[in-house]
TrEMBL record:
Coiled-coil spans in chain: none
Listed InterPro entries: Haem_Oase, Haem_Oase-like, Haem_Oase-like_multi-hlx
Listed Gene3D superfamilies: Heme oxygenase-like
Protein name: Heme oxygenase (Biliverdin-producing)
Keywords assigned: Heme, Iron, Metal-binding
Pfam family, one: Heme_oxygenase
Amino acid sequence: MTATVSDISTDTIETTPLATRLKEGTRQIHSDAENMRFISELMGGKLNVAAYRDLAIQQHYIYAALEQATEDIAGMPQADTLTFAELTRSPSIAQDLEFLVGPDWAEQIQPLPATLVYVERLRQSSGSLARYAAHAWTRYLGDLSGGQVIKVMMQRHYGMGQDGLNFYDFKEIVKAKPFKDLYRERLNGLQLTETEIEEAVAEALVAFELNQKMFAELGAIHCN
């Protein structure tokens, strides 16, 4: 079942802050994405490091597009409240791929069709602070939350060390919870119209749908 913007109670629209609206509006689809076969089997130790490698490859394209969008919104009013250098992931992904693929990783990898669609959507998000906020919230707060569990599971099930898992290591963020609280506070402090808030929730739903499609394609490759 996929949640929709209409699932959010109209009684709370005027008072519920953006971060809460995003969380509540995507609760079901977030759960659906986490329980897709590829993620379940990867986290359960049923796949291999090659499956994780292919996920990391797709993350390279996704974060390159997201971080380009971060640069593109720089001139927008309020944009600086949502941009943190500490969140930048592309250099860490490059480190991981050098280990997982090899020094010539950039010539060896390619995006899945679903990833290309996701990348294009991220590029389009730079035209709206509300849409950008939805994608940044989906990716970065996810990395600081469930992403940390993925790191532990990769180490536990596949014997991975730090090499290949730099993506999940936010060296400049000492404690995740205070940072996540700050990020949510910044989201809630954005001066957005009700239409823009609804646009943000709708875009977050799209982000999870795009993740699901990418996981489905990875599952078709790695899950028997």
